[in-house]
Amino acid sequence: MEPVKVGLLGLGTVGGGTVEVLTSNAAEIARRAGRGIEIAFAAAREYRPESINGLDRIGRIGDDAFAVVEDPEIEIVIELIGGYSPARELVLKAIENGKHVVTANKALIAKHGNEIFAAARERGVVVGFEAAVAGGIPIIKALREGLAANHIEWIAGIINGTGNFILTEMRDKGRDFADVLAEAQALGYAEADPTFDVEGIDAAHKLTIMGSLAFGIPLQFERCFTEGISKIGAMDVVYAAELGYRIKHLGIARRSETGIELRVHPTLVPERRLLANVDGVMNAVLVKGDAVGPTLYYGAGAGALPTASAVVADLVDVVRSLTTDPNNRVPHLGFQPDALADTPVLRIEEVETAYYLRIFALDQPGVMARIASILGEQGISIEAIKQKEPGEGETYVTMVMLTHRVLEGRMNEAIARIEALDSVQEPVMRIRMETLSG
């Protein structure tokens, strides 16, 4: 049987890794797919030939990506350009031309996935996007197929390695955020503009996709609450550890009685939990299903070969499905398109969680009582209080509090009242807390 001819868009880190995996493991991949797979045409504006193993096995290389998606020989297009445009136009043109698509582009799927999947259904083609979330970890397939028998209750994941590396270094070495960020950029973990990583946008793209797969709702990136780690201070990492917690930047999706929670933010996690012990650039996703219980998926969330592993796995799936009736394929979001629910995604003010509060207040009688009174008036009960001794001659003291669970809206009101006190000098530092108990 003739090999399947594939078009590759992008020869950067992941593109080069995909070439290497496809060529070095060609025989094993063919055994799994039932046919050989060859890259007949690749397009890249810039690439480093000396860094790509197997480049000589590519049929043609040009600089026009649209020429690839228009080529009648190409059956499957692998989009590894990234970003919203021209990736969206290329993917939609490939689909219009009847070609299947494999992509690692989480931003594209999170923001334009509903449109792309609708176009793919209309043309009877497949869009594979395993590599869009958590690199080489097969979390998309787990949610869409492996856990299909379950009513998913919640997902909590460390899904950005850059942020996890920064928080790990801050905890282990007592370093400041800016110092570790500079090292992450020097090591290539963070881009020159690190906004997507450290402000949670990258994680929000990924959580949007996982939330749709878990709960059978349309992709709604704009409804995902997003907060980064740039305001986390070294002192917060220390105080959390003293209280038995670690700070992790989590993406959390949870089904509640009133709707779906989709939120990305720094989170205090009990130090004994598995997620609290995922360090460095590694990713991990914890999924709680009603039948299976909690399951953990751990591995490299980025990098050339781990991400290429997921790209090629999707490619194998697509090749296997080439002769399958389109109506009998696994739906893109795991649920039949006409069965997607209109369950609302909650505003962050409607979400209930516990909190860590750090308050810098005047060291005088009655201040603590007034703050506690404000919290009590908002229906917020305190679980623990830790007050740091002021240095000699200092008139302000740091207070750290852990609260029980309360609606975010109530906490917002309480914080506004506390910050309005003359005795409170700085904005209140607030970090949400999750127990992640199974």
TrEMBL record:
Domain ACT, first and last residues per copy: 356-432
Name its pathway: Amino-acid biosynthesis; L-methionine biosynthesis via de novo pathway; L-homoserine from L-aspartate: step 3/3; Amino-acid biosynthesis; L-threonine biosynthesis; L-threonine from L-aspartate: step 3/5
A GO biological process of this protein is: methionine biosynthetic process
- Annotated residues that bind NADPH are located at 106
Under Pfam families, the record lists: ACT, Homoserine_dh, NAD_binding_3
Specify the superkingdom: Bacteria
Q: Where is the active site?
A: 206
Q: Which keywords, in A-to-Z order, does the entry hold?
A: Amino-acid biosynthesis, Methionine biosynthesis, NADP, Oxidoreductase, Threonine biosynthesis
Spell out the reaction equation it catalyses: L-homoserine + NAD(+) = L-aspartate 4-semialdehyde + NADH + H(+)
Q: Which residues bind NADP(+)?
A: 9-16
MF terms from GO for this chain are: homoserine dehydrogenase activity; NADP binding
Q: Where does L-homoserine bind?
A: 191
Q: What is its EC number?
A: 1.1.1.3
Tell me the leader sequence span: none
Q: Check the record and name the CDD domains matching this protein.
A: ACT_HSDH-Hom
Q: Which NCBIfam families match?
A: PRK06349.1 (NF004976)
Q: Which PANTHER family match?
A: HOMOSERINE DEHYDROGENASE (PTHR43331)
* UniProt family annotation: Belongs to the homoserine dehydrogenase family.
Q: Which named protein is this? A: Homoserine dehydrogenase
